[in-house]
């Protein structure tokens, strides 16, 4: 079961990360380069929190430590973007892969913006994606939304899609040390990263 990180205090700073499993093949004899896209490209966040008192800090640290062995959930930043009124977005049909998500249940005329982030829940796991083209929901509440990266798992009809409060789910600082500072005033200074697991 995923651990939800506290939403207070709100982070001072975010850095969005991209782990790209594709690559470019460069022929050693000077031929044209080729881009190879591989399934698995995913997002992460590097987060810096404001100084916290001992009580707040210990709660945050306890949850971060749990996030070394089980996934954590925290909001993905979408500042200054109006995302309410989407309706009840769901996946419209089973989708095995590709770079488009078929949606249903949305508010007619809702404008999905190019660069807008959202998450899809499949088999209890959240996956962050970004819309790669402005798309307006049609008169039936449907849309075929182009996305980045390509789908990392097959989707099932009625999987939940969330544009209003996208959440990232992953492990805390995978492959790196997790550390925090304790000041002379007993305050806690915490910075960490979360990378999606799939």
UniProtKB/TrEMBL annotation:
It comes from Sphingosinicella xenopeptidilytica. This is Uncharacterized protein. The lineage of its organism: Bacteria, Pseudomonadati, Pseudomonadota, Alphaproteobacteria, Sphingomonadales. It comes from the Bacteria.
């Amino acid at each position: 079961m995923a651990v939800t990180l506290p939403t207070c205090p709100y982070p001072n700073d975010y850095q969005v990360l991209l782990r790209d499993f594709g690559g470019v093949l460069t022929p050693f004899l000077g031929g044209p380069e080729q881009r190879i896209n591989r399934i698995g490209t995913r997002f992460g966040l590097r987060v810096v929190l404001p100084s916290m008192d001992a009580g707040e800090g210990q709660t945050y640290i306890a949850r971060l430590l749990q996030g070394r062995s089980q996934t954590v959930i925290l909001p993905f930043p979408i500042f200054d973007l109006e995302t309410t009124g989407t309706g009840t977005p769901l996946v419209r049909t089973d989708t095995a892969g590709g770079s488009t998500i078929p949606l249903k249940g949305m508010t007619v005329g809702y404008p999905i913006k190019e660069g807008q982030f959202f998450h899809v829940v499949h088999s209890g796991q959240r996956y962050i994606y970004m819309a790669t083209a402005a798309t307006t929901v049609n008169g039936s509440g449907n849309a075929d939304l182009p996305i980045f990266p390509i789908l990392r798992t097959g989707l099932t009809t009625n999987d939940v899609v969330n544009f209003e409060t996208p959440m990232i789910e992953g492990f805390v600082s995978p492959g790196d040390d997790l550390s925090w500072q304790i000041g002379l005033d007993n305050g806690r200074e915490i910075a960490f990263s979360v990378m999606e697991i799939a």
